[in-house]
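Case 467 in the screening queue. Each case pairs one protein sequence with one candidate compound; here the compound is N-(aminocarbonyl)-beta-alanine. For every case the pipeline is the same: read the inputs, emit a complex structure as tokens, and attach any notable structural observations.

Predict complex for case 467.
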Amino acid sequence: MEENGIMRLVIRNGALVSSDTVFKETDLLIENGKITKVGRELQIAADEYIDATDKWVLPGGIDVHTHLEMPLRDDIWSSDDFYSGTVAAAYGGTTTIIDFPTQVRGKKLSVAVSEWMQRAKEKSVVDFGFHGIVTDVSKATVNDMARAFQNGITSFKFFMAYPGSLMMSDTDLFKAFRTCSKLGALPMVHAENGVIIEEFIREALDKERVFPIYHAKTRPPLTESDAICRAAHLANLAGSPVYIVHLSTREGLQAIVNLRKMRMDILTETCPHYLLLNETAYLERDLKGAKYVMSPPLRPESSPPALRYGLLKGEIEIVATDHCPFPLSLKRELAGTNFTKIPNGGPGIETRLLLLYHFFVATGKMTPSQWVSVTSTQCAKTFGLYPQKGTFLPGADADCIVFDPKGQTSLNAEDLHMNVDYSPYQGLVTKGKIETVISRGDIIITQGRCTAEKGRGQFLPRRPFRR
Ligand code: URP
Ligand code: ZN
Ligand code: ZN
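Case 467 output:
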């Protein structure tokens, strides 16, 4: 019971899944938002009990790659704001996100950070951190990076694609890696060879190849593996590790495996859509293939099996979402001119855990502990949040999920909570059901309802990267 003002919640008799083992029939004691005890048949009076008999209890998911209310052009923003996006995240078992304040070329990174902070603090229902997206290496930007780093933004993303807007030259990339190395920050790279892609796009448009499939055809897999090799070499020359975001190709993974043999320090993430979908999706009729226009694109059929194998072998450590939705109505309308006009990005913040459970854990390919590792624990470790997040160790934030492995969940757009009018997985009913979601001891999802107050999410200053 509440004693000395302490709020107690006990989750009873669940199978506690950590990143390295499963503790059967175990209780979890939560006091004032923290995990304080893990054990069998804890005889402790509490304010609230959750019976997890025959259920699994997991640490809350951590999605290290989201783009909520991201301005793309003046009048086009990704369609989930920090409220709808984090509510959807919570329904999907994700209790922490890391989003990307994006420096607009010619403006200050610190301006982006303040804008993102204001939006997220006002609306987020789960805890959030930030990586800074940096588009130049001017003195002012390097100072801003140092200030952001001191305030717990300890990773920065750089683009090798999108010339003229986000792309950095090799020289600037090298300088940016050096800055990260000096600070102790983790550089993250969007690895696509932007200038060669521009050339392929020009050729395609000259030949009036305008349909969504040409989004994939103008970004061949070698443009990813080439950029990965360059990023790894430049990072190594600058004395820095490098984290490759949204790895999408077999060729890119092969490059990473080879570069690691050369002792290059590379970390990597992929996303469910690169594991499960391929470029044939762009051929959906009536420009519906526009749904899948994102960068990197969905890939030839050879890539998803190679990435799945790499994930199961531990060559890919993290699965994030790159959640960046735009309405299909808008995507199709803009696709009418040509594929380059389609806003890049897709939905995923709500479906990550269930897709991995359905396709990997329920089929026996991945252990429950591996599932927890790639969706939570390793995310916390890589991005300076461990052991506050991603674990049941006493003292950790009480972020957890009660999961029914025998339940099922529809991934139809109308049954999900993301603010978007389509689902890439329409018609799929997954095995497994996320029943209860707890964030810092608060029950935020229960009986199919979100009970979280808007703005309850807290900013998470993160520690520097450490191997
Ligand atoms: O198409 C995508 N992925 N949009 C979001 C921005 C990025 O590159 O991650
Ligand atoms: Zn990217
Ligand atoms: Zn992204």
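Case 467 observations:
- The mean pLDDT is 97.
- The two ends are 41 Å apart (CA to CA).
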